[in-house]
Amino acid sequence: xxxxxxxxxxxxxxxxxxxxxxxxxxxxxxxxxxxxxxxxxxxxxxxxxxxxxxxxxxxxxxxxxxxxxxxxxxxxxxxxxxxxxxxxxxxxxxxxxxxxxxxxxxxxxxxxxxxxxxxxxxxxxxxxxxxxxxxxxxxxxxxxxxxxxxxx
Length: 152
Prior knowledge:
The chain has seven helices and three strands. By secondary structure, it is mostly helical.
């Protein structure tokens, strides 16, 4: 069954696949969640029905339902009701980029913490302190910029 609009079927399939793989790798999303999220990010209309998502992914209803619930809990996806008050339409949250920035900030903070532990561990050993300093400065600057962007 095709959806009632063509954008889901004709939107750049290569970009959808590339974004989906990126979301899997960089944001550690399960494959189906990444596919759904990529679809919602790239979709030209405001929101997609459950049926349209099912048509696009070809996945089972229970799998789609589980992954949509996961994306909602993660704060990446939201739903609205249109004319039919019982039918939900799914869309990315308006601030989905903010969520991405929060994830990058979290990863950067973890990286800084790990680097600090390595430095403390190797305090009496010979290692490239100049390179470590450059890397740490880079991470600290990145963290500062991410915090500024996140607060915008």
